[in-house]
């Protein structure tokens, strides 16, 4: 394994602990995380012409780069004001509604509506990571009320050591489909870093080893069960079923069981410079994911499930990856070198991520909570968003 893929693994291993840890002390942690967030970045109050960066710095307009969109009819979420500084240039975004981790679900429809109002000005597609805390229904209800042209990949986040996690989320997804129909659902993703977690828990690293095959059998049973569930709803031809994992952790039989695969590809954790990050991401994804998938009989469509650049670290030790800093300036470089180029190349990617996640920072520190294009309060960071509108 190259050092690059080891770092991709590291990122993913942290993600596992994020999820497991999320069950502990969530409410208090969010409060702490918000406190940390507020101390991090001061907006200056420059107030001049209306370019993206001026708005990001200056907080002059009352539209979405400045927090919560204004509705001309307060009772109709579809009447939100569009922000001229936002452009529908992203293929897709990675998204988790705040407060969507068990046991204490603190998410709200109001909050998700505001997220959707902002995200719909950046992209037509988002992906979720799991289905706990009613998040599938919340997102679909928000799309309905805002009347935006958006699709969501619903997701089931099974864990190897708890078989009830899969069925619990399957039933939430099923109920959401029954309520909202499929018009705004792009697919159902079963498994997030399942193979990585399984291998890690069993002291292995090769997804196609004997231990990998054991983990794959559990995951494929869940994938098959989701197909059966959709089939009983007469939706097996309507909704594709996929899987997401760290870029180096796809088991071949798992890929043969899905319609699409989503791969985390993180230049930050590969310790490459931000200047080479976009090219590294494109090459890693092509060689590790696209080419192998194209050789399989079912030719699953491959996407980049996560890529991005952190803007801050809560500790000095993670303030850079050995090659470049976590900073808004470097996020800007990655945006400028990746987004429009990937669009032109026809790469399907989910930019990581929509907004900062204070609970991750409170739980894990380092850069984990600081990958958003927006602060957790939906104020745009000091960045200029790419303008290469996708059709
Ligand atoms: C969840 O909420 C319950 C009831 O309010 C509380 O007793 C418990 O400590 C909370 N757990 C966490 C992890 O926040
Ligand atoms: C949003 O959060 C950022 C970062 O903590 C802060 O600088 C900004 O003032 C906040 N904006 C609003 C409108 O609260
Ligand atoms: C702010 O909101 C008010 C009330 O909805 C509106 O009249 C005004 O045009 C908005 N200003 C900007 C800069 O968007
Ligand atoms: C889930 O969210 C939807 C949309 O807001 C709501 O209608 C439904 O009551 C919620 N279900 C639960 C169990 O909270
Ligand atoms: C999953 O479904 C495929 C196709 O029907 C089948 O060949 C395979 O044996 C099933 N695997 C498991 C683990 O259920
Ligand atoms: C699925 O299609 C079959 C055959 O057309 C029909 O009998 C059945 O009621 C449908 N089931 C659902 C859940 O729509
Ligand atoms: C990557 O960078 C991190 C942070 O500086 C460092 O801890 C780690 O050892 C580096 N890994 C490699 C393989 O260079
Ligand atoms: C786009 O494709 C070119 C040519 O293959 C490649 O050099 C570049 O790295 C790709 N960039 C992205 C962001 O996909």
From TrEMBL:
Which ranges are annotated Low complexity under compositional bias?
A: 43-68
The reply to whether Nucleus figures as a keyword in the UniProt entry is no
Write out the catalysed reaction: Hydrolysis of (1->3)-beta-D-glucosidic linkages in (1->3)-beta-D-glucans
**Which membrane topology term applies here?**
Single-pass type II membrane protein
* Gene Ontology, cellular component aspect: cell surface; extracellular region; fungal-type cell wall; plasma membrane
Q: Name one Pfam family in it.
A: Glyco_hydro_17
Q: Any idea of its EC number?
A: 3.2.1.39
Any stretches that span the bilayer, and where are they?
17-40
Q: Which domain of life is it from?
A: Eukaryota
* Keyword Magnesium attached: no
- In this chain, the stretch annotated as Disordered covers 43-83
Record-level GO BP terms:
cell wall organization; polysaccharide catabolic process
- Coarse class of the protein's main subcellular location: membrane
| Top enzyme class | hydrolase
- Compartments (UniProt record): Cell membrane; Secreted, Cell wall
| Known role | Glucanases play a role in cell expansion during growth, in cell-cell fusion during mating, and in spore release during sporulation. This enzyme may be involved in beta-glucan degradation. Active on laminarin and lichenan.
Question: What PANTHER family does the record tag this protein with?
Answer: GLUCAN 1,3-BETA-GLUCOSIDASE, GLUCAN ENDO-1,3-BETA-GLUCOSIDASE BTGC
Name of the molecule in the record: glucan endo-1,3-beta-D-glucosidase
Which species is this UniProt entry from?
A: Lentinula guzmanii
State the organism's lineage.
Answer: Eukaryota, Fungi, Dikarya, Basidiomycota, Agaricomycotina
């Amino acid at each position: 394994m190259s050092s690059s893929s080891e770092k991709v693994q590291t990122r993913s291993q942290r993600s596992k602990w994020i999820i497991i840890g999320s069950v502990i002390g969530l409410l208090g942690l969010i409060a702490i995380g918000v406190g940390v967030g507020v101390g991090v970045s001061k907006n200056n109050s420059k107030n001049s012409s209306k370019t993206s960066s001026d708005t990001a710095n200056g907080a002059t307009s009352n539209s979405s780069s400045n927090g919560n969109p204004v509705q001309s009819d307060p009772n109709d979420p579809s009447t939100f004001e569009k922000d001229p500084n936002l452009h529908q240039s992203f293929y897709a975004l990675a998204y988790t509604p705040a407060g969507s981790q068990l046991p204490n679900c603190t998410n709200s429809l109001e909050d998700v509506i505001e997220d959707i109002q902002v995200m719909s000005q950046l992209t037509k597609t988002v992906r979720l990571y799991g289905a706990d805390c009613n998040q599938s229904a919340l997102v679909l209800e928000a799309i309905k009320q805002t009347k935006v042209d958006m699709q969501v990949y619903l997701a089931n986040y099974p864990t190897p050591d708890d078989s009830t996690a899969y069925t619990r989320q399957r039933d939430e997804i099923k109920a959401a489909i029954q309520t909202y129909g499929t018009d705004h659902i792009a697919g159902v993703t079963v498994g997030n870093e399942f193979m990585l977690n399984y291998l890690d828990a069993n002291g292995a690293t090769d997804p196609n080893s004997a231990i990998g095959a054991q983990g794959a059998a559990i995951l494929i049973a869940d994938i098959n069960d989701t197909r059966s569930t959709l089939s009983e709803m007469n939706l097996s031809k309507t909704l594709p079923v996929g899987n997401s994992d760290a870029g180096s952790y796809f088991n071949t039989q798992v890929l043969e069981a899905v319609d699409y695969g989503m791969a985390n590809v993180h230049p930050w954790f590969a310790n490459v410079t931000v200047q080479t990050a976009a090219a590294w991401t494109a090459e890693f994804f092509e060689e590790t994911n696209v080419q192998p998938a194209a050789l399989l009989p079912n030719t699953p469509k491959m996407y980049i499930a996560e890529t991005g650049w952190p803007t801050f670290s809560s500790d000095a030790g993670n303030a850079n990856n050995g090659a470049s800093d976590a900073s808004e300036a470097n996020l800007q470089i990655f945006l400028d070198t990746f987004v429009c180029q990937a669009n032109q190349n026809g790469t399907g990617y989910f930019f990581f991520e929509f907004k900062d996640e204070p609970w991750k920072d409170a739980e894990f520190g380092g850069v984990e909570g600081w990958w958003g294009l927006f602060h957790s309060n939906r104020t745009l960071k000091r960045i200029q968003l790419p303008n290469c509108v996708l059709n």
